[in-house]
Amino acid sequence: MTQPPLPFAPEILRFLKRHHYERVTPRAALIDMDGTLYDSMKNHTRAWHRLMTELGVECTREEFYLYEGRTGASTINALFQRQFGRDATDEEKTSLYQRKTEYFRELPPVLPMEGALDMLSVFREVGMQRVLVTGSGQQSVLDNISRDFPGMFDDDKRITARSVTHGKPHPEPFIKAMQLARVSPSQSIVVENAPLGVEAGDRAGAFTVGVTTGPIPREAMEEAGAAVVFSSMPEFAHMLPSLLLSLLTITSDY
Predict the structure, then answer these.
(1) How far apart are CA 157 and CA 194, in angstroms?
(2) Exposed end of the chain (fewer CB within 10 Å): N or C?
(3) Could you give the CA distance from residue 130 to residue 77 in angstroms, rounded to a whole number?
């Protein structure tokens, strides 16, 4: 009797072929923070837009959703290049990011993303390591991780803006996360909500999941390299056990 096809088989097979892997054996989940664990992007985009318009930079609030994953210094530099035709100085990057952080703190507190704790619980129940991988350096949000997601992230399993030379979409953040977890790319799953992060995860060689928790369309996630895209975090958390089973079962000759 023919076995029914496993869920996500086409997506997994495409991923295996593109990365020349025999199979994926997930041992570590490398997880973004803003827009993935926290519903924080509305506040970040407001703070960035306020900062940049005060400086005379022509920009829209919506475009900052697309910059998510960059370090603050990288975001500032990119906008300075576009508006003023020059790099921001180190002093400007430091002072302006501090001002942006202050604007962020003035806004209402951010809440955990619906479904994020369920997702993390699945990873913990199956024995997978969890590594936080964020382009943020805002301590106000990082300090909430242990309170809002108790027992989900060890203090030494965090990659932040301070940990890397190159932020997303460069693969360095996820490569460093793999090194922390002592896993190979084919043993890693990346969870991201923005194209720059998806691109970084895919370039690092990890099976990269895109979750559309904001206004960015799923097509942008797919174009950036997401192996599979979910329409919400609750949907992803619900389907995660099936995805993990398929990843453990499907090989390149499936």
Answers:
(1) 21
(2) N
(3) 31
Helix (H, G, I), strand (E, B) or coil at 91: helix
Q: Alpha-carbon distance 38 to 7, whole Å? A: 28
Rounded CA-CA distance 170/204 in Å is 8
Of 159, 84, 164, give the one whose Cα is nearest residue 92.
84
Q: Give the chain's end-to-end CA distance (angstroms, integer).
A: 16
> What is the rounded CA–CA span in Å between residue 246 and residue 254?
11
Residue from 39, 104, 35, 102 nearest 66 by CA: 35
CA-CA distance, 240 to 162, in Å (whole number)? 30
This prediction's pTM: 0.91
Question: pLDDT tens digits for 44-68?
Answer: 999 999 999 999 999 999 999 888 8
DSSP state, residue 34:
B
Which of the 8 DSSP states describes residue 23?
Answer: B
- Give the list of residues 6+ apart from residue 216 with CB closer than 8 angstroms, or none: 65, 66, 193, 194, 195
